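> example.struct
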């Protein structure tokens, strides 16, 4: 392969977010059920997380299930819940052994009780870690997250600033994503991190998520490193 390996001096994003799309199409192309795509997708997710921390990323957020995805057929959702039941604890244990704190972001009260328990147990095991983090977005919607923060602010009864409002997001206290990657050929955000994405660099890959390799992640990071982030200023001001 070569060519895309991360060289010294590369600007590594502190926070990478990934919209893991294309599991279903990847499986269909192989005449396999969608659940097979989700299984492969979960394996790939773990591999990419490990690789991201190994190259020096501090936060990884992955979009695993949107609020809107809850409208999918019951069998597909049950298949996803079974993956969590069977593999989540072991897989997250493996990644978080690097001193990574796990947070599940989204309205998990919409999930079966026993699945919620698996998620909460994994979160609790990592609560002692600081500085590195994984956010798994499950039953997550960007608009729902903003509305939730607005309601929390109303409960407090104080006017908000951008900073105080940010602290009410699920990702409060973390840097905003520097790089958002979407696999699966679509060029849209699908309600992901709408507040946090304000100045993220957006990278779209034609690869389906199960085939998005560690080298592909390196390639995205190298691309990111070549961007000029002006945050509204001119080149001369930077
Ligand atoms: C993304 O893959 C994973 C989830 C939304 C759970 P999809 O399931 O959307 O795969 P495609 O887009 O149908 O190929
Ligand atoms: C976005 O993928 C959500 C996740 C990857 C979890 P979708 O497959 O649900 O997005 P749309 O429906 O094509 O916009
Ligand atoms: Mg999709």
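> example.seq
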């Amino acid at each position: 392969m070569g060519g895309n390996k991360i060289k010294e001096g590369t600007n590594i994003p502190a926070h990478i977010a990934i919209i893991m799309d294309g599991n279903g199409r990847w499986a269909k192309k192989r005449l396999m059920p969608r659940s097979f795509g989700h299984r492969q997708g979960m394996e790939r997710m773990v591999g990419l997380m490990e690789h991201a921390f190994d190259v020096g990323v501090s936060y990884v957020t992955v979009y695993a299930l949107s609020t809107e995805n809850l409208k999918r057929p019951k069998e597909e959702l049950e298949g996803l819940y079974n993956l969590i039941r069977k593999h989540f604890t072991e897989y997250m244990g493996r990644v978080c052994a690097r001193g990574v704190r796990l947070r599940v972001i989204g309205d998990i009260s919409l999930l079966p009780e026993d699945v919620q328990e698996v998620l909460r147990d994994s979160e609790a095991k990592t609560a002692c870690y600081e500085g590195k983090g994984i956010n798994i977005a499950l039953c997550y919607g960007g608009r729902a997250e903003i509305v939730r923060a607005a309601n929390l602010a109303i409960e407090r009864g104080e006017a908000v600033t951008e900073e105080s409002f940010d602290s009410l997001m699920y990702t409060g206290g973390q840097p905003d994503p520097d790089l958002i990657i979407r696999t699966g050929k679509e060029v849209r955000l699908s309600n992901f991190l709408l507040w946090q994405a304000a100045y993220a660099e957006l990278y779209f890959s034609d690869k389906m998520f199960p085939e998005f390799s560690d080298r592909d992640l390196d390639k995205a990071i190298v691309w990111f490193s070549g961007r000029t982030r002006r945050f509204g200023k001119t080149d001369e001001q930077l």
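> remarks
The first strand starts at residue 15 and ends at 19.
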